[in-house]
């Protein structure tokens, strides 16, 4: 794979040209473990193709992530939305906000999402009765916020 998704054909004996431009270092051993967390849910979402039933439990198949294009000529790129996100790696950014899932997008978009998320959370905290003077949002600690606002 070349820069920015551009495919470049390189001979295996051209060592200096053989470069992995992917910014991922996937641990295959870890991902191919039988009984990996999330596989039940993934099978329910994605169907049996790509999630194999072994006697000891479920296991990801190579073909869950590695698929060919329609013509069967090239491997399709791995994608967060298709291969990483569903069931296993949601971008849940803050344990205190269980419904908040960030978009897998350019940093500027993620930044805008996070800004809006925390501004809203702050405003909701301000609107709570008896918390009008609280300065720090979501501490869950009235004593702490009372001190900081005095
Ligand atoms: C969970 C998704 C996933 C599964 C399952 C998976 N792979 Fe991968 N594989 C990746 C990703 C992502 C990369 C690229 C990132 C990297 O190089 O570390 C990769 C890279 C590779 C590469 C290197 C390709 C290159 O261009 O250098 C080979 C070979 C490979 N996988 C073979 C396999 C085989 C064989 C299996 C099954 C036994 C398998 N993979 C299962 C996600 C997966």
Quick overview:
The chain is mainly α and 150 residues long. Helix content is 33%, strand content 5%.
- From the alpha carbons, calculate the radius of gyration and give it in angstroms: 23 Å
Structure ligands: heme C
Counted by DSSP, the helix tally is 6
Whole-number total of structural domains: 2
Strand content: 5-15%
End-to-end separation: 58 Å
Which labels suit this protein?
single chain; binds heme C; 6 helices; disordered C terminus; mainly alpha; two-stranded antiparallel sheet; 150 residues; 33% helix
Structural description of this entry:
By secondary structure, this protein is mainly alpha-helical. The protein folds into two domains: 24-89, no CATH class; 91-145, no CATH class. Helices cover 33% and strands 5% of the residues. It has six helices and two strands. It has helices spanning 28-31, 39-46, 62-65, 80-84, 107-127, 142-148, and strands at 51-54, 57-60. A hairpin with a 2-residue loop joins β1 (51-54) and β2 (57-60). Residues 144-150 have low confidence and may be disordered.
List the helices and strands and how they pair.
Elements: H1 28-31, H2 39-46, E1 51-54, E2 57-60, H3 62-65, H4 80-84, H5 107-127, H6 142-148
Antiparallel strand pairs: 1-2
This protein binds heme C.
Heme C (HEC) binds next to helix 1 and helix 3.
């Amino acid at each position: 794979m070349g820069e920015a998704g551009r495919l470049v054909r390189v001979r295996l004996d051209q060592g200096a040209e053989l470069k992995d431009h992917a910014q991922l270092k996937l641990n295959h051993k870890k991902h191919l473990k039988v009984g990996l967390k999330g596989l039940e849910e993934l099978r329910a979402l994605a169907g049996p193709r790509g999630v194999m039933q072994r006697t000891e439990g479920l296991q990801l198949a190579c073909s869950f992530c590695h698929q060919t294009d329609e013509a069967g000529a090239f491997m399709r790129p791995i994608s967060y939305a298709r291969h990483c996100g569903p069931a296993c790696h949601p971008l849940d950014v803050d344990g205190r906000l269980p419904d908040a899932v960030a978009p897998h997008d350019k940093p500027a978009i993620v930044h805008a999402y996070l800004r809006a998320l925390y501004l809203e959370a702050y405003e909701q905290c301000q609107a709570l009765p008896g918390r009008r003077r609280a300065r720090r949002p979501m501490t869950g600690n009235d004593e702490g916020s009372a001190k900081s606002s005095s």
